[in-house]
Every structure is written in structure tokens, then in C-alpha cells.
Design goal:
The structure holds 2 protein chains of 2 kinds.
Chain A lengths: L1 H12 L6 H7 L9 H11 L6 E8 L5 E8 L5 H14 L1 H7 L4 H12 L5 E4 L2 H9 L3 E5 L5 E4 L29 H11 L5 E8 L5 E8 L5 H12 L9 H8 L11 E2 L3 H9 L3 E5 L6 E3 L17 H30 L7 H11 L6 H21 L5 H18 L5 H15 L4 H39 L1 E2 L2 E2 L49 H17 L1
Antiparallel strand pairs in A: 1-2, 2-4, 3-5, 4-5, 6-7, 7-9, 8-10, 9-10, 11-12
Chain B lengths: L10 H14 L12 E11 L8 E8 L1 H4 L13 E8 L2 H8 L6 E3 L5 E5 H6 L5 H6 L8 E5 L5 H5 L9 H15 L6 E2 H10 L1 E11 L17 E12 L2 E6 L1 H10 L6 E7 L2 E21 L2 E17 L8 H29 L6 H8 L1 H7 L3 H5 L4 E12 L11
Parallel strand pairs in B: 1-4, 1-5, 5-6, 6-8, 13-14
Antiparallel strand pairs in B: 1-2, 2-3, 6-7, 8-9, 9-10, 11-12, 12-13
Classes of the chains: A alpha+beta, B alpha/beta.
């Protein structure tokens, strides 16, 4: 049975054979022609004469020298650079060409590249595959008649979203920038934060059709090399035709598919990414996604925010504990209510029990139905709030708050105690700082409610035991998911539920960075690192002050 | 794992089996919706009509939640906050089940506030009443037990309505607790203490009494009067011997019991001031007592030591409390007063031939051989003759906001 299952999986994962016609148009492995006209025809045909393909062919040199063409995709190019640094140079600087330029096309091409194009980055392309990759990434291709090479000039542009404030992870005191869709802009934000030559970025393209840029960033020397190798291997195993957002990568490389918990960390804040890089984690950026992935992830991480490090340690520690308590309320609140009311009314103080009994006297449903009804309604409201068009928002909130809350109680369908429990649970769920963890808890809550309705506190106990056992068994890229609680690592408790004052946090998390755990140990970095430079400056300044 | 123990391929099967066990063997199928429970707040046991078939007449008081809790259900017809159902039978279990023919839901006992036993039943013996209470998982044995004193039945006592507390049983429980804490004369006896006392032979149970017309207690109109026609009152301590009510202790004698059994929390005592009787009121704020037994000539001698701390609450007397000499005298007076109370109680108990203080247990601990010899004749012959010495150490810590009284001239 096992082998049959494996065969099935292998079959499913095998990339589908493309239709012959499609293959013809896409697999252009051939080298470029020397004839410009032929090349242009081929490009046009391959792209199906797409409307956004712009081919500008012109003659170069006053006494006609050579036919040249520039090709670009409309909307992906910075037209100012294109005009000033490519077209203008090629068309106007004719006198210089007359004096210096060689007349043989191959030499002319090299001359253009080396002397004429005042553009930051020019690459020679030899075949159509490369040509299309550069062209579709927004570069401008310059083709010279008679030369079987092309020049890819980086004049990318077009409209990109500006850097804005983080939406899901806002902070009061911290920096206000968040990632955008552009990979390069995102990695630049990290470069600005970590000015070390040891910050390395490896880029590649993924998705056989989408050719989405994927960048893997880490701090060489701090990162665990075994971990790095493992991640590279997992990335290389991805076989998809499209990468839409970082979730595609996440689901392919995650350790465990059958778990409610997220085992890959996601953030939209560059300061969080920088902090994690310096703890020895690896960050995977995906182009066109504002949420890079951070691996390995631990359960603990999902209850920490960047704000914890910007507030005083007392408040930060309190907030972290508050979040854990809120998590427990979210997970167990309604189920405990159900268990107490339907199995253990003797555990409720008498006056409260009388109150609850009075409220429930006219309720027609068993308490589990009542609870599920309310929780379901809340989830519907929440989903409606996310999906609905903005202008109708008010209508939903009025209907939701008034009709479903107040009216349901006075109509005798639900008790007001249940409304309070559901509301408290909902509010508590919003204090969990990371959305992936909130979602997991929301789902688990329903399971707990069902268990509570069948077995009471006993069922909740069973559920919690099973959940803890399962969570203990999880690993994220070889790191135990519950670290530093299971296995217990005393040194890392300083920065888990509590946040000790920063001078105490001199070590990186044990399991993530097993090589260099001491933060101030600079032995691995004896170059002219910016940190050392800064120190020297500081010292010399102090010297001068003394003299 | 696969070499010893369960083979690997049986693992999923074992997992399923374990899950099925976990679900089916849990044996906790007591799910009951809240609205189907009849929350019992009080229970009363009276004498039934005959001695064989209907020995007991059991009354349960069931809370009507919507009348008790405030808010939402406003505008309804004013109904009574509790309802009582009565049945007769020979065992408690049988009688309680019979009540289900009258009550709307399953009787739910964990929130029982109080158990009242009629004086007639108490005189005939209460030994048979507590087995079910101890055996049944539904009963918590921490509720107080009371004896309905005088002509009123336990049922009538439980039914006296009060305006300050909607549930009569809760009112009884609260009054008992307050009197125990502030007045210190009548200590409450929990059901588990009664069971323990029944095992050992002697037990004391607090009494409860209706003041006024018994009949008018059972009506909401009783609560509409500023001075209700019927009121309940905690009064006296019932002495039980071998499960039967023997005698009532009141006032100082009852307080003596609390002194000896180390149950005293707070109380107020009056002292004489020269010729003026009962002029100075002392509040006892902290008290501790211990019993010590020595064996002399194969006979036990009992020493009771009482430590008490107090404060002057009221001083209608010309004594200057600022002087330490005066305070010293007061200390001694207080010691003597407490000593007299304790001795009064001990003598009463000896007269009754009832070891309500459980001195027997102390003797057993001091010398088990002597106890074995005297155990059979202890309460009857030896206890009434035993020497009891009382030593009291009392100290007045505070004199309130003033030292001299304005009467001081």
C-alpha cells in the first residue's frame, strides 16, 4: 500500500508534458541570428506580436553605418534612461562613431557596449532564451545588424508601490517601513540595516513559466552551514510552473504539511528580518511578495513582536506573558465554558451558576450548538469584514454588532454569557501578533469545543495532551518547534516568555545558530567591517577629546 | 521499538484501539444541560408519618434562577424565588428519587447551602441520614447541618422568607457564618464533621429557630413587612450522644464549647467594673486553645489551655485604661471570665455524660493502653469524674481610640 501511495505521489509531482505547439513557441534554445530582420521577426512571432512589445529600429551613423534595433516591453522600462542613455547615444553621437568606430559589425557591437551606452549594467546575450529572460524582466535589448549577439541594458522602470507603513505588524516606537513587492527594494532595506560584507544574497528564478526571482539571504559565519545546505536542497526540489507569492515556496519547503501550526515564519518588517538574520536564520525573499519567509521558525517566535525590543524590558516581558494568556483564552475559552456548564456545574460558584441558569432557561439549544452558532457567526463576520468591498463596511458592522449580538440575546436564541465568552475569545485572538498563529488557534478552538461538548474537562485535557505531544514532535528545518521549552534551554529563556534587559542577551538562540552563539564575538569577521571602523572612529574622537 | 514491544506495522491499529479506549472507558457521561437541572439550595428532614414505610419526610428547596438573578427577565409575574417539594420515604435516596415526580428537572445537590433536621428526628437519631450524603458523588459534605429547634418543623424553618436574601437557605447559611465569625457562640458544623462525630459517639450541631408566627413565614408577604412576622434565628448548640439529641446548650455554655474545641474566631465578652456589672466590653480578636492529657494513677487528668487576645470595645466605667496596672487587672478579669465559661461547659457535659470535646481521642493519643482499659466505660463512668484544669492567658492589646472614658469623673 505504501509503495502504491509513493508511486501516486511521484506521478502527481512529475511535471506535466506541455502540448507540442506550446513547446514550439517557448523552447527557443537557438542562438541569435546575425541578421537583424530575422531576429526581430523571431522575437515578434515568439511573443505573438504582443501589443506591449516595442521594437524601435533605426539607422546608425550619418553615412549609413549599420541598422540597429532596441526592443523593450512597454511599462517595464524607464523611458527617460532609455531615451537619454541608449537611443540618443546611438543616434546622435555620429561624429564620434565616424572617427573611431570600426566598421565590422561584431567590433561595432563591442564598441557600442564599451564606449557608447552610458548605462549602469549591460550584458551580452547569445541566445533567445537569455534574450527573453532579460527582455521580460524589463531590460532593453539592443540588436546590431550583422552581429549574432545582443546587448541587454538594464533600464528597468515602470510603476512600483512606494514603501509604506506596515499594515499587520505596526509598532509605536520602531521603524515604520515595510517590505514592498520588489525583491531588490526589499533586499536593499536589509542592506541598509546590516552593513556587513558577510550579509550574502543568493538569487535564482523559480517557476518554469513565471520565472519569479527568489533571493536567499543570510549572514555568512553566523548561519549554520548544515541548515543552509538543507534549505538549498529543498528549494532545488521545487517543481512548479508558477510562483505566486511566498506561500508557494513555504508550502513546498515546510517540514510538516499535516499540522495546524505554521512552521515557517512570515513578516513584513525589515527590522524583524534583520534581527532574525543576526540570530542565524535564513530569509527567503520572493519577488512580487511583500512577505519574505524566515526559517527555521519556532513556536515561541510567533508570540514576539519587533516592538518587544523597542519597549522597556519590563513592559515587553509583561506583554509577552499577556499574549500567551490570550492565546490560551483563544484556544480554550469557549471549550472551558462548555465543559463547565454542561459537565461540571458544581465547579461554578453558586451565585454565578444561578445567573447562568437564569440566562439559559429560555435558550432552546444545547450549549454546544449555541457556542458553535456564535463562533460560526463571528467567523462569518470576520471573513465578511476582510472580503467585502470597503464602502459596504458600515452595513456589515451595524448588522453584525446590533442584530447578531443584541437581538440574538433578546430573541432568546443565545445567552448573553455566551456572547461575552465569544467576544472575549475574539478580542484575545487579536493579541496574537502573527496572523498564521491566529489562524491556527482559531481552527484548533473548534476541535477543543467539540471535545469539551463530548467529554467535558476530561476531553479538554485529552485535546491539550494530544496537541502538546504533536507540537513537540514538530521540527522546523531540524530545529525542535517548541525550543527553547522542549527541549528546555535555560540560556534561551532570557528571550522567550520574558525579555531580559538587552545587555543580558549576549547570546544567539542555541539551536538556530550552533556555530557562533556569542553575539560580540568578532573573530570570524576580521575585515574592515563597518562596526570596527565605527569603533575606531569613536575611540579616536575620545582621544582627541582628552588631548 | 519494532524489536520489542509492539511491531511497527501494528502501530496505527494500536493507536486506534487506544483512542477508542480513551473515548469509551472514560465513564463520565454525566452531561446535563444547565436548564434541565433543578439546583437544590436547601434540604430539610422531618419525621414521617409512621416508623416503617415512611420514616422521613424530606423537603428540598429548589432555586428559581430567573427570579433570583437580577436583570434581563424583568417584567415577569413576581414568582417566589424558590420552590419546595416534599416526599416521604424510609431512606433518603428513595425519598429524593420520589421527588422527581414533582420537580421539573434532575435534582442537583452540589450547591446545597444547608441541611436542616427536625428536632423530633434528631431525638430519635440521625445516624441513618448521612450515609447517602457521604456515599453519593453529588453531595459535597461541606455544607452546614442545623437542627430546627422548638415547635417548628425543619420544613417550616427552611421556608421562612426574608427580604434581604432571596433564597431562604442561603440566608440561613449566611447568618450562621456571620454569627460564627462575629459572635463566636455557635459554631457551624459541616456534614463531614457530623459524620466524624457520629463515628466517635458525640457531636454538637447548631440549632435554628423561628421567631414569631411560623405559619406566616411561608409567604412572600412576610418579606413586605419591615419587621417580618416570622424570622429565623441561630440559637443554641444541640448535644448528640450516640446519634441522639440529648440536650441543648445556650449562651455562655455554648460559647465554652467553641473555646475548648479551638473554634473561637471572634466574640465579645462583658466584664464587671467594681460594683457595676457587665460594664466593660472586650472583643476577643484572636484565640487559640489546646487540650493536654496526663495519666495519673491510671486515670486521665485533662488540662485545657486557652490563649486569647482582645481589645476594649466599650468602657462604661471610670477606670483609666491608660494605666498598665488597670489593664493588668482587666487581663486577669478576662482570664477568670473565660475560665468560668469553659468550666461551666465542661461541667454540663460531665453532667450529661457526653464527651462533646473528644477528650477520649486525646487520652488515646497520650496513652493508648490506659484508653483501651477505660474506653468502654469512658463516657458513662469515668468522664463525669475526670479532673479538668483550665488555664487561661488573656491579654488586652488595644483600648480603642481613647483611653479614659468621658464618664471618668
Amino acid at each position: 500500500m505504501n509503495s502504491a501511495w509513493n508511486r501516486l505521489i511521484r506521478k502527481a509531482r512529475k511535471p506535466k508534458k506541455l502540448s507540442p505547439q506550446y513547446e514550439e513557441t517557448t523552447s527557443i534554445d537557438k542562438a541569435l541570428h546575425s541578421s537583424l530582420a530575422e531576429n526581430l521577426t523571431k522575437v515578434k512571432n515568439s511573443l505573438g506580436n504582443s501589443g506591449d512589445l516595442v521594437v524601435r529600429d533605426f539607422k546608425m551613423g550619418k553615412p549609413f553605418l549599420c541598422k540597429v534595433a532596441s526592443i523593450y516591453i512597454n511599462g517595464l522600462t524607464d523611458k527617460e534612461i532609455l531615451g537619454n542613455s541608449i537611443i540618443e547615444r546611438l543616434m546622435n553621437d555620429v561624429e564620434m562613431i565616424e572617427e573611431e568606430a570600426p566598421y565590422e559589425p561584431g567590433q561595432l557591437g563591442t564598441y557600442i557596449k564599451e564606449h557608447m551606452l552610458t548605462i549602469t549594467n549591460v550584458v551580452e546575450v547569445t541566445n533567445f532564451d537569455k534574450l527573453f529572460l532579460h527582455l521580460l524582466s524589463g531590460e532593453t535589448i539592443v540588436l546590431v545588424d550583422g552581429w549574432n549577439l545582443g546587448l541587454a541594458c538594464s533600464a528597468q522602470g515602470g510603476d512600483l508601490r512606494a514603501i509604506s507603513e506596515p499594515v499587520a505588524e505596526s509598532s509605536v516606537r520602531g521603524p515604520r517601513d515595510s517590505f514592498t513587492e520588489s525583491l531588490i527594494s526589499n533586499t536593499a532595506m536589509i542592506r541598509r540595516r546590516i552593513k556587513s560584507p558577510n550579509l550574502w544574497l543568493e538569487t535564482t528564478e523559480m517557476g518554469t513559466i513565471t520565472q519569479t526571482g527568489v533571493g536567499m539571504m543570510y549572514v555568512k559565519g553566523i548561519v549554520n552551514d548544515k541548515l543552509l545546505k538543507e534549505i538549498k536542497e529543498r528549494l532545488s526540489k521545487i517543481e512548479v510552473d508558477e510562483v505566486q507569492g511566498s506561500n508557494t515556496i513555504e508550502e513546498w519547503i515546510a517540514d510538516e504539511t499535516w499540522t495546524p501550526w505554521p512552521t515557517v515564519f512570515i513578516t513584513e518588517r525589515p527590522d524583524v528580518v534583520a534581527g532574525n538574520l543576526l540570530e542565524g536564520r535564513i530569509v527567503i525573499f520572493v519577488n512580487e511578495t511583500p512577505t519574505p519567509l524566515i526559517v527555521p521558525a519556532t513556536w515561541n517566535q510567533f508570540f514576539q513582536t519587533a516592538e518587544d525590543y523597542y519597549l522597556r524590558w519590563t513592559m515587553a516581558s509583561f506583554l509577552r506573558m499577556l499574549r500567551i494568556v490570550s492565546f490560551l483564552i483563544t484556544l480554550l475559552g469557549p471549550s472551558l465554558f462548555i465543559a463547565f456548564l454542561s459537565f461540571h456545574p458544581e465547579l461554578i460558584p453558586t451565585p454565578l451558576l444561578i445567573n447562568l441558569a437564569a440566562q439559559r432557561q429560555s435558550i432552546p439549544f444545547p450549549i454546544i450548538i449555541e457556542a458553535l452558532l456564535m463562533e460560526f457567526t463571528f467567523e462569518v463576520l470576520r471573513e465578511a469584514g476582510v472580503r467585502m468591498p470597503r464602502p459596504v463596511g458600515q452595513a456589515v458592522s451595524i448588522v453584525g454588532a446590533l442584530v447578531l449580538g443584541e437581538a440574538a440575546v433578546s430573541a432568546g436564541i443565545v445567552s448573553s454569557a455566551m456572547v461575552i465568552v465569544v467576544a472575549a475569545t475574539a478580542i484575545a485572538s487579536f493579541t496574537i501578533p502573527h496572523y498564521a498563529m491566529t489562524d491556527a488557534t482559531r481552527l484548533l478552538r473548534f476541535g477543543m469545543m467539540i471535545l469539551a461538548s463530548f467529554f467535558g474537562l476530561y476531553g479538554i485535557g485529552l485535546g491539550v495532551i494530544m496537541l502538546v505531544a504533536h507540537t513537540c514532535s514538530l521540527r522546523s528545518f531540524g530545529i525542535p518547534y517548541l525550543a527553547p521549552f522542549a527541549p528546555i534551554i535555560l540560556a534561551d529563556q532570557k528571550d522567550s516568555i520574558f525579555r531580559f534587559p538587552l545587555p543580558f542577551l549576549s547570546k544567539r538562540p542555541r539551536l538556530v545558530s550552533q556555530i557562533k552563539t556569542k553575539r560580540t564575538d568578532d573573530n570570524y569577521n576580521r575585515g574592515p567591517s563597518p562596526r570596527e571602523g565605527g569603533m575606531k572612529q569613536h575611540e579616536s574622537k575620545r582621544d582627541s577629546d582628552e588631548t | 521499538m519494532s524489536q520489542r514491544g509492539i511491531p511497527m506495522r501494528h502501530k496505527p491499529l494500536m493507536l486506534i484501539v487506544v483512542c477508542v479506549f480513551v473515548v469509551l472507558l472514560s465513564g463520565c457521561w454525566d452531561r446535563e444541560e444547565l436548564q434541565q437541572l433543578s439546583i437544590v439550595s436547601g434540604m430539610a428532614i422531618d419525621k414521617g408519618s409512621d416508623k416503617i414505610k415512611n420514616r422521613y419526610r424530606v423537603t428540598v428547596q429548589i432555586i428559581n434562577p430567573s427570579q433570583v438573578s437580577g436583570g434581563q427577565q424583568g417584567g415577569k409575574v413576581q414568582a417566589s424565588p424558590v420552590t419546595t417539594f416534599t416526599e416521604t420515604g424510609s431512606t433518603l435516596a428513595e425519598t429524593l428519587r420520589k421527588i422527581s415526580t414533582k420537580s421539573p428537572g434532575e435534582l442537583f445537590f452540589p450547591h446545597l447551602q444547608v441541611l436542616v433536621i427536625g428536632e423530633k428526628v434528631a431525638k430519635e437519631g440521625i445516624e441513618d441520614l448521612f450515609d447517602m450524603i457521604e456515599r453519593d458523588a453529588q453531595f459535597r459534605v461541606l455544607f452546614p447541618v442545623l437542627i430546627a429547634r422548638g415547635h417548628a418543623t425543619a420544613k417550616e424553618t427552611l421556608e421562612v422568607t426574608t427580604s434581604l436574601e432571596a433564597i431562604p437557605s442561603a440566608k440561613i447559611g449566611d447568618a450562621l457564618k456571620t454569627s460564627e465569625e462575629d459572635w463566636g457562640t455557635y459554631k457551624s458544623t459541616r456534614a463531614d464533621q457530623v459524620v466524624q462525630g457520629l463515628k466517635e459517639g458525640s457531636v454538637m450541631v447548631t440549632g435554628i429557630k423561628i421567631d414569631g408566627e411560623t405559619k406566616s413565614g411561608n409567604a412572600t408577604t412576610n418579606t413586605q413587612q419591615i419587621s417580618p412576622s416570622a424570622q429565623i434565628e441561630i440559637k443554641g448548640v444541640a448535644l448528640f450522644k450516640n446519634g441522639k439529641l440529648k440536650n441543648w446548650l445556650d449562651g455562655h455554655a455554648a460559647r465554652g464549647v467553641t473555646w475548648v474545641t479551638n473554634e473561637m474566631k471572634r466574640t465579645v465578652m462583658n466584664l464587671n467594673c467594681g460594683k457595676k456589672k457587665e460594664a466593660t466590653a472586650i472583643e476577643i480578636s484572636r484565640a487559640k486553645s489546646s487540650t493536654h492529657v496526663t495519666i495519673k494513677h491510671q486515670k486521665p487528668v485533662i488540662y485545657i489551655t486557652v490563649h486569647a487576645e482582645g481589645a476594649v470595645l466599650e468602657n462604661n466605667c471610670s477606670k483609666d485604661l491608660g494605666k498598665s496596672q488597670v489593664l493588668g487587672q482587666l487581663d486577669e478579669q478576662l482570664e477568670e471570665e473565660i475560665k468560668q465559661e469553659v468550666l461551666l461547659t465542661v461541667k454540663k457535659a460531665q453532667k450529661q455524660k457526653s464527651d462533646i470535646f473528644n477528650f477520649g481521642e486525646q487520652i488515646n493519643m497520650a496513652d493508648k493502653h490506659v484508653w483501651k482499659n477505660i474506653e468502654s466505660s469512658w463516657e458513662k463512668d469515668i468522664f463525669p469524674e475526670t479532673e479538668v484544669y483550665v488555664n487561661v492567658e488573656a491579654i488586652i492589646r488595644r483600648t480603642g481610640m481613647t483611653t479614659k472614658s468621658y464618664l471618668n469623673k
